[in-house]
Amino acid sequence: MDVLAMGVQRDERPLLEAAFAGRHDIRCLDVSLTAETLPLAAGFEAVSTGVDAVLDAPVLEGLVRGGTRLVTQRSTGYNNIDIAHAERLGMTVARVAAYSPYAVAEFAWTLALALNRRIVRAASRTRDLDFRLDGLLGRDFHGRTAGVVGTGRIGTAFTAVARGFGMRLLGWDITPNPACEELGMQYVELDRLFREADLLTLHIPLAPSTHHLVGARRLAEMKDDAILVNTSRGALIDSAALVDTLREGRLGGVGLDLYEEEAGVFFYDKALEVMTEDVLTRLLAHPRVLIGSHQAYFTVDAVQEIAAATLRNVDDYVAGRITESTLIPRSP
Q: What are the catalytic residues?
């Protein structure tokens, strides 16, 4: 089968091509699937998309008109896909049910450690031969409280590292995870977790119930010197409320690998353009904010697993199989 993969990063391409070699012909494009790039997908029965694709009703209808019957997304999240409309159109939709949780958990820790010890500021200074310690004072994580919102595979991996640091462990989830409890985690109400955490990290999916979970009220509950890290979904945080909180001089650091209005910005080179997204501009300029490029997942190990899972989704579509990665099965 001919497969079109869109939104493929340069370092991702050889891993995808290696996974599909000898099984299916795959064409990789670095542009993401949107209404503007939709014509590129014409004639491909299977299209693989990145998390930045826009798969709303008009795009899905355009895909069907062009002959696409399978959409296999290279991520666990799929809030960018109008699932109900895809089902009405008779499309098959699949995702990557799981990949290395360590990639994301380790990146969350990378943000937390860099913020706590002011690594970016220090590195910038030393390049200019400025070796002063002014403004670089951090804190021991040992003995302080880690608040983990969402204790699935990624949250559990983050918790294991926090235990290694000797931190007190607080967690919140719909259902407690025995693996985290064995690590010493105490499950508490969300409000208490926000009040007591010195380091708070988000590892939950985006849904109507979690949209802007971290808003003005919960930000006000956090300690003035707490560190907030988000490597899950941008819209979990009310970005405007976050800017207001930082303007008040509160929070010791904010690490973001994503942003709620990142579509059309993240994964692209915007260096020669004028940034019109005011809230993002304010966050980028703040000395206590560190923003990644939606890269937490981006390790060789994780991308290889994602490529292999995408190949399985194509094979399962051809065979008519339903797996844990299937969001909408193939019509009989």
A: 233, 262, 294
